[in-house]
Amino acid sequence: MSRPEDGALARAAVDALADQLALAPKPGLPDPRDLGVRGTRKDHCSLRWSARALAPGLTAMAAAARRTGGPTPRLRAELGAIGRSTEHSVDLAGGGHRGALWTLGLLVAAAALDPGARSTQVTAAAKMIAAHPDKRAPRRASRGSSVSAKYGAAGARGEARAGFPHVRRALDALATARTAGAGETEARLDALLTVMSTLQDTELLHTAGPAGLRHVQAGARGVLEAGGTTTDAGRKALLALDADLHARAWSPRGSAGLLAGALFVDALPVAVSAGAVGARAVSA
After folding, report:
1. Whose C-alpha in 31, 124, 176, 270 is 20 to 30 A from the C-alpha of 139?
2. For the whole model, what pTM was predicted?
3. What values do phi and psi take at 74, rounded to 5?
4. pLDDT digit string, tens, across residues 178-206
5. Contact status, residue 268 vs residue 12, Cβ threshold 8 Å
6. CA 191, 30, 238: angle at the middle one, nearest 5?
């Protein structure tokens, strides 16, 4: 049975995904500008709607972690089973978010194991959970795992087993931009570009190959080297990269999911406080 704090963590994760979807302009990725374009309006509306379908599964993942009490093989098996059920629910609601579900599910479970954990403690706990194999997972290789094997990329599993290094990089980029006086939108865009600049995104490898991945990474670095999205030069480079990726139909989806993970971890103090308030209200 779930508790208020489990639901609070799930809501924080869904809010983080919604914040990622609301961010614009995101190079090659769905964002609110699509709502004014006939060809992509339905896709973006579906993504916003289906994001809500993650909440019950993420709540169940938090509850499973709290019951289990540690990053054990049993917890990994439970998370896998819940994740597959949640994928089905999300597909019925419009689809998408598979990478985000993997990232957010592990981070939500890690946060539930230790409500006082922050940042690197959460990613370290997620690493310990991901280290266990999911023995009940389908034996058929996913597209992501096939691409990872073909090109030697870490992929989603490798990212988790390494303790989500790109989530940590995004958190560092957020902190750096905020300290420099950037607005929240610019800080989040700089964090996204930081991830894009080095991530071996299997979606890009599938659609564009290694040369295309290097092209996207170089474009993201170019925006950051121009001063980031707070400068005129950086903004100009961002819009050029965005136009380029949309024209090529290249989408760095892996980076988007990891940014959502970083936004969730960044919000954890507020999420934990909300859960504690809810728990006190129930017990009163």
Report:
1. 124
2. 0.90
3. -60, -45
4. 999 999 999 999 999 999 999 999 999 99
5. yes
6. 50
